[in-house]
Amino acid sequence: xxxxxxxxxxxxxxxxxxxxxxxxxxxxxxxxxxxxxxxxxxxxxxxxxxxxxxxxxxxxxxxxxxxxxxxxxxxxxxxxxxxxxxxxxxxxxxxxxxxxxxxxxxxxxxxxxxxxxxxxxxxxxxxxxxxxxxxxxxxxxxxxxxxxxxxxxxxxxxxxxxxxxxxxxxxxxxxxxxxxxxxxxxxxxxxxxxxxxxxxxxxxxxxxxxxxxxxxxxxxxxxxxxxxxxxxxxxxxxxxxxxxxxxxxxxxxxxxxxxxxxxxxxxxxxxxxxxxxxxxxxxxxxxxxxxxxxxxxxxxxxxxxxxxxxxxxxxxxxxxxxxx
Length: 324
Known about the structure:
The chain has helices at 21-24, 31-43, 63-74, 98-112, 129-144, 158-169, 188-191, 195-202, 230-239, 244-257, 261-271, 283-290, 299-310, and strands at residues 13-14, 48-50, 84-89, 117-120, 150-154, 175-181, 205-209, 275-276. The chain is an alpha/beta fold. The chain has one domain (13-215, 268-296): NADP-dependent oxidoreductase domain (TIM Barrel, Alpha-Beta Barrel). The chain has an eight-stranded parallel beta sheet with strand order 1-2-3-4-5-6-7-8. GO terms for molecular function: oxidoreductase activity.
């Protein structure tokens, strides 16, 4: 099986918010701040950037990829040769052939300048299993044609991962990464599915998206709010009241470590062998995320957090595309 050229730092940067007006209030006036975020992250060793060809809302569709391409081309500082541009290609209902997946990859390359890691954004097994094989074959074609350096998956469980592993292995193509929703409020893929063990067996890096659970694990929100608008405004009043014990545990450890709650939550993901990809819209948020690096939780602290998380009655809802 071919060896991947992809390397993973301890933490990456997610760019879902870059172009998303609906959930994250994006405006083009933010672009200068986002470029500063990119530059700071790369300089400090956070060189993995995750995006998707479906990112961006309305007229800003594809904006996240475009910005990453611009920022990467403009960057001339430390660690420039380590930058990894990773995108996820959507399993849209109208993408039905392997050629459509190759075309999608080429369109992303046109926006970004290059793709280092291309990932299947979600499996179709839960609603159209017949669609998935051709899209995966197209993803593999991108690799074989030398258009990308590695292939990855997103929102796959062990059963479906085994299926894809065999399909790709028959062509000598390694799966280098698998990202799932994973945080102290969303442990389902690991605790209930045992996904991390299978990833370790296959040599696959698990990537934790939404590691701060849309902001709930920052300690910013009280049980009474105020809460953000939109989807978060719907979820937070239902989740925040029942997680006080977990936040208390996070706060206690944060005090001992002279860190913030969010930094402890991110370090917990790292301690579990995953690479978290928190987002950042400005330098302050990027600095906050970077504070999760350069130290590690004690084993007893990880255990305490595990126990506090298990006591939370209402966890974060799972991605509807997550398979078993």
